[in-house]
Design goal:
- Residues 5-123 form the Gfo/Idh/MocA-like oxidoreductase N-terminal domain.
- Residues 135-247 form the GFO/IDH/MocA-like oxidoreductase domain.
- By secondary structure, the protein is of the alpha/beta class.
- It has 2 domains: 5-123 and 279-296, 3-Layer(aba) Sandwich (Rossmann fold), CATH 3.40.50; 127-275, Dihydrodipicolinate Reductase, domain 2 (2-Layer Sandwich).
- The protein has helices at residues 14-23, 39-49, 58-63, 79-88, 103-116, 130-140, 175-191, 280-292, 303-320; strands at 5-10, 29-35, 53-55, 69-72, 92-96, 120-123, 147-155, 196-203, 209-217, 223-229, 238-242, 245-249, 258-263, 266-272.
- The strands form 2 sheets. Strands 8-9-10-7-11-12-13-14 form an 8-stranded mixed β-sheet, covered by helices on one side. Strands 3-2-1-4-5-6 form a 6-stranded parallel β-sheet, sandwiched between helices.
- α5 runs antiparallel to α9 and α7 (175-191) packs across α9.
């Protein structure tokens, strides 16, 4: 392996473009290859980012011995298939969230990576932005005492295109897996695994959720009230309530740059925490550092966390009657 890590990008969509922009500014990261099932899309991406190789199939990228690590950025429903393809061809993988469509997929991916000694991580950039680190520091230091409740939302008004990715069941559409995963992940990060899950949703004619409301309960009697929607713009904020105050993670909480510490209704401290680039830099640096240190998973976002997150999402889906093929 050269000093540079050679990245392959599998699925050159909108998020892959943002990711590639960030790769260009990360030290020792090289955009080496891009692959799409549509060669014209691959060539367009190639003209914008100038990788060494442009492929019209995912298999060709996976078979390229020069590729060190692959970023899988396809629609949700294909994360499992193409992550497994890359792992079986000896590639480290960063796969966009959600890691898989259900617990069985995620467990299979984990076992494959571990059996081959390869790095695997879910692309939850939230864990690596500076604001999340500060939030965990404040919570662990009991600055607001014991946590009694969390409230977090994520919503935007989408064009109600029932043929689009967000509403297509075969592509893993719906608000829960696309954006609801962020408030659910925040609750897992802070409060752990809930002992009881209640959820309700509004479903579209395509059979996916356009709105999902969740209430989680925990052994210590704390609660998490979480919401995701494709029907309306919401604040996209998070509040963590403790016995001695509260913390507000300012919009957009999943990659925030400001945390406010409250006593009653008064701000007593605030923290401005800028992230690099558009926010993906920190996630990329984590992957690079782990691979270069010979780690097969991130200590900050271990595979067991992604498995726990998937299990919670599976239970929410069971509550709202959301079934994928």
């Amino acid at each position: 392996m050269s000093n540079n890590l050679k990245w392959g990008i599998l699925g050159p969509g909108k998020i892959a473009r943002k990711f590639a922009e960030e790769l260009q500014v990360v030290e020792n990261a090289e955009i080496y290859a891009v692959a799409s099932r549509d060669m014209d899309r691959a060539k367009q991406f190639g003209s914008d980012f100038n990788p060494s190789k442009v492929y019209g199939s995912y298999l060709e990228l996976a078979q390229d011995d020069e590729v060190d690590v692959v970023y899988v950025a396809t629609p949700h429903a294909f994360h499992f298939e193409y992550t497994m393809l890359c792992l079986k061809h000896g590639k480290h993988v960063l796969v966009e969230k959600p890691m898989g469509m259900n617990e069985a997929e995620v467990e299979t991916m984990m076992n494959e990576a571990r059996s081959r000694g390869l790095f695997l991580m879910e692309g939850l950039w939230t864990r690596f932005v500076p604001a999340t680190g500060k939030l965990l520091e404040l919570i662990n230091n009991k600055v607001i005492g014991d946590i009694v409740a969390i409230r977090a939302d994520f919503g935007f008004k989408s064009k109600m295109d029932m043929q689009g990715r967000l509403f297509e069941k075969k592509l893993g559409g719906g608000s829960l897996l696309d954006i609801g995963i962020y408030p659910v992940y925040l609750s897992l990060l802070i409060l752990g695994i809930p002992v009881d899950i209640m959820a309700t949703a509004r479903m579209t004619k395509t059979g996916v959720d356009s709105y999902c409301s969740m209430m989680f309960s925990y052994d210590n009697h704390s609660k998490a009230s979480l919401e995701s929607t494709l029907e309306a713009h919401t604040p996209i904020e998070a509040y963590i309530y403790g016995t001695h105050g509260k913390i507000k993670v300012a919009t957009r909480f999943h990659h925030s740059e400001r945390i406010e510490l409250y006593e009653e209704e008064d701000i007593i401290e605030h923290y401005d925490l800028k992230y690099s680039g558009n926010g993906y830099v920190h996630e990329i640096e984590e992957v690079q550092n782990c691979i270069k240190e010979g780690k097969t998973e991130s200590p900050r976002l271990p595979l067991k966390t992604s498995l726990q997150l998937t299990r919670i999402l599976d239970k929410v889906r069971a509550e709202i009657g959301l079934q994928y093929e």
